[in-house]
Specification:
Blueprint: E1 2-6, H1 11-22, E2 28-33, E3 44-48, H2 57-60, E4 65-68, H3 79-100, E5 104-108, H4 135-153, E6 158-162, H5 170-173
Parallel strand pairs: 1-2, 1-4, 2-3, 4-5, 5-6
Helix pairs in contact: 3-4
Length: 178
């Protein structure tokens, strides 16, 4: 199985690559990142790729699945850059997946995509229409709406939406004491 991961050098991506490399069913892992990491696992075929401008179709052709993790949380002071990467870049990823004929797409969304629930328990049927005051939430909900369009236009494409809460790695939790 050949898996392509966008945002492969990020917090989730670096951990996912290790899981994929250890899976005997996976024989090829392709990591896409805006900036290649300094230390790269030789088991990953790395490509420097910006989802806003790189031709993604050749990188995805022949993949059994694409895991889309690329998303900017910063710079909050540049909402145009964040919109271009998060929403328009995601749309380019989705378009490349369909153009390359990839049969499965895994999209890292977020519980932030959901509309406010005001204390009620939420299910996956709760509207993913964002919290208007949050750029992050608006972008995640916009990506979900794009996925709805892709799903309607390509019913044979398997789309998996993952909506975690907060994802932290051990280094992010460490506090250096002086």
């Amino acid at each position: 199985m050949r898996i392509v991961v966008t945002g492969a050098s990020g917090n989730i991506g670096t951990h996912l690559l290790q899981v994929l490399l250890a899976d005997p069913a996976v024989d090829s892992v392709v990591g896409l990142a805006r900036r290649l990491p300094e230390h790269r696992d030789p088991g990953v075929k790395w490509h420097e790729a910006d989802i806003t401008s790189t031709d993604l179709v050749p990188l995805m052709r022949g993949a059994d699945a694409v895991v889309h993790l690329a998303f900017l949380l910063q710079p909050a002071h540049n909402p145009q850059l964040m919109q271009r990467t998060n929403v328009l870049g995601s749309r380019r990823v989705f378009d490349a997946v369909t153009a390359a004929g990839v049969p499965a797409l895994v999209h890292a969304s977020s519980v932030g995509a959901y509309a406010p629930g005001f204390g009620e328990p939420l299910t996956e049927s709760h509207p993913a229409t964002d919290i208007d005051s949050s750029t992050y939430s608006r972008h995640k909900a916009a990506c979900e709406a794009e996925l709805d369009n892709v799903q309607q236009a390509h019913p044979g494409l398997r789309i998996v939406r993952i909506r975690p809460g907060v994802v932290l790695s051990a280094p992010a939790l460490c506090v250096r004491l002086m």
